[in-house]
Amino acid sequence: MIRSFLFATLALVAAAALNAQPKVVELPGKSPLVTIRLVFTTGAASDPADKPGVASLTAQMLSNGGTKSLTYQQITEALYPMATGISAYSDKEMSTFVGQTHADNLEKFYAIMRDMILNPGWRPEDFTRVRDDQVNALRVSLRGNNDEELGKEALYTLIYAGHPYGHENLGAVSALQNMSVSDLQAFHRQHYTQANLIIGLAGGYPAGFAARVKQDFAALPAGTPDRFALPQPASLSHNQATIIEKDTRSVAWSLGFPIDVKRGDPDFVPLLVASAWLGQHRDSSGRLYNRMREIRGLNYGDYSYIEYFPSGMFQFEPDPNLARHLQIFQLWIRPVEPPDAVFSLRLALFELDHLIKNGISASDFEKTRSFLSKYVNILTKTKSAELGYAIDSQYYGMPDYNTYLKAALAKITVEDVNRAVRQHLRPDRLQIAGVAKDAATLKASLTSGAPSPKHYNSEKPREILDEDKIVEAWPLGLKPEDVTIVPVATVFEQ
Amino acid sequence: MRRRLLLAFLLASVSCAWAAGKIFPYAYVQEDLPNGLRLVTIPTDFPNIVSLYIVVGAGSRNEVEPGKTGYAHLFEHLMFRGTAEYPPEKYNATLKTAGAASNAFTTADFTAYHTTFSKEDLPVILSMEADRFQHLDYPEADFKTETLAVLGEYNKDSADPFSKLFEELCATAFRVHTYGHTTMGFLKDVQAMPEGYQYGKDFFSRYYRPEYTTIIVAGDIDPKRVRALIDERWGNWKRGSFHAQIPAEPPQDGPRRAHVDWPSETLPLLTVDWRGPAYSDDTMDTVALDAISRLGFDQNSPLYQKLVVDEQKVDYLSAGPPNNLDPQFFGVSARVKDAKDLASVEEQIKTTARSFAEKPVDPKKLEALKQHLRYEFALQLDNSESIAATVAQYVALRRTPETMNRYYDMSAKLTPADIQRVAKKVLIDRNLDVVTLTSTVPAAATKGAAQ
Prior knowledge:
heterodimer; A: alpha/beta; 2 domains; 6-stranded mixed β-sheet; 5-stranded mixed β-sheet; 18 helices; 11 strands; globular; B: alpha+beta; Cytochrome Bc1 Complex, Chain A, domain 1; 16 helices; disordered N terminus
């Protein structure tokens, strides 16, 4: 009896260990470069409630601290002749370590990258420096120096308030200040497991290398995959706005709402077409860009998203390995002159309403479909990006992104797009995040219901002036109690 | 012949790129049209994708008239305002159907228009670009609207204190030369742009000419076919005759400094710069200053390790050599965690720079750096767009990719004595410009650790 019980237990353990093995995604090639992406499917959604930011700080500590055998200084010295580095970033459900090396240096490079994760040094002096960096990333880089990213990140925290996605990935200043190395070690022990690991390799690595990497990372605890309890956030009953007040020249807007569609879902590609029609990231052929910038000169650009895209200020294509089970629909209105702030917001809402009511035309559908089916080649133009997308596909349980997108685009119709728009998008119950200097005056304008006419420095076609008459009085649905003013110094503090 | 070239290229790209001697591993073709237009074609082994960079040798350096700063950049915007054959809607629709990633940027010395797309769309993209470079035509109302998009760009950048720091540095160091203003231009000039329609026309007529322009096509291409397309659509472009008189900045007569009060939350910033020489691929000047910037201030340098890793007084430290057509800066920038350390950090940057003049560097460190530089170069050539972008940066300086090979050849020959000689010449107090920036917001972020 005892013996059979023992056998049963062993069998269970063996099954768990088998299940816990890291997944490996390989893209071998002839390139002299090798890319390694190590993705742990854990992130801010696994932060304990009282330790927001611990997932991110752990990843930064591993990639910017020493290992057991090498100090951070020695790692820097060792990587320098190879002209490379190892960087890390964390999102809600993924923590990613990425590095690229010339194949000449693969062994030396890999040994460092491996030890960063398997044998971290946890030195107090590294911790102090890395934590300072993370606090200043929140206070200075995001809050102080970048109104647009501030607005975009604030929008997510507003939409997901009280949810596992509800805090900024970098955490909160007070929580970071109270963290210790032992908090990071605990997170590392629990979440840096074989079950959470996806190993990605691309380029000119030698035969047998993948098996060796997998063998090395068997030193991690087997663990079980992170399970995220991710309900859809509660829907708003009407529009809500938050104005972050700071001393700045212009007004930045981000607005959106949760959608029940993610990559791989049946309506993902139809919604992607609609979003790309409104305005693909940094693309000058989108509807919003045309109506807001090209015709009216309101700002530098305006775009739409159905997937998280941080650092849009600095890059044209999104980073891979930001996979999420929950996404939002978002409009990014780049900074406008303060006298145009309310008009610009109204125009964005007007355009969203226009899309929902009228859909996109058959010819616009064909152009956008053609665009996306070719643009996907650009998204995956580097081996590192191609590898990142392949890892995301592994996580989502779907075919490789190029194949998936091209096949889905070939099948869908304009009716599919317009039905998905009607089903998933809406012109109301929006969260709106603004960054502005004179928040009280802006709030008064947003809630007064008075028209906000646009004055131009040049002649405009009659069609635009007529449309402006509608836009300037477009209902914002905001009462004074719906608009909250937040001093910038308090954002991401608690 | 073609097969041999292809084989040589394949060998170069799969083995150590510099074994054959030249740093740039791709066999490129450089040819001039009779009208002065230059074409550089670079077949790569990355399939399907083609990247097109059109480099115009006009940047904010060319803005010589008072009150007209920012026009090179404005012109980059106006180039998307259409022609009779391709109004903006048609231009954008064509790019959209092609799935192209298209954009442009302006620097002090040049403006670059870049498009990356699938290879089958090469003819239409080259035709469309030829059309707008030769036949740009926009009404004054569109001009005025576009000036507001430029103001929007100024607004988006205005939240970043590094932009302001650099703007102040330029104004401090240059009183005559056009490097005294940034590419974005002075705010008052940007705000006055709506009235500059005619000047915009003049700017186009002066610089958007074949003799100022180099077309770079990299990717899955056949150079002969590209040349035929270029001949067909760009061959009739008329050569111009304008030569800008860029005023020369006299040598600096002593150290200068400036300070910026920043109205929002930030850590204190510092930039310590020496007026330096112009970019050079036939002297040791640029490669020596590049070496100093790295040996003195890179992540593995003693100063970085001291200030950032050990003492943790600085969270950003970076340096760069002068890489411009005319003499500009050797600069070191730092973000300091506490304003009380600004003076000390400044002094340590200066001391580090001076040390290169005082004694020769360790030859082993110099050799490790040379290895770093070559790997760094090889690692950035990981797709056709990066290859075209890299070539564009160099073409803007000498109008040929060969300058890359010459530059890295010079770098390979660099000695500790060269570094010392150039440091003695450039990194002296008389050439020094220092700008600091601090927040006026009380209790701004300082150190993150619990107090």
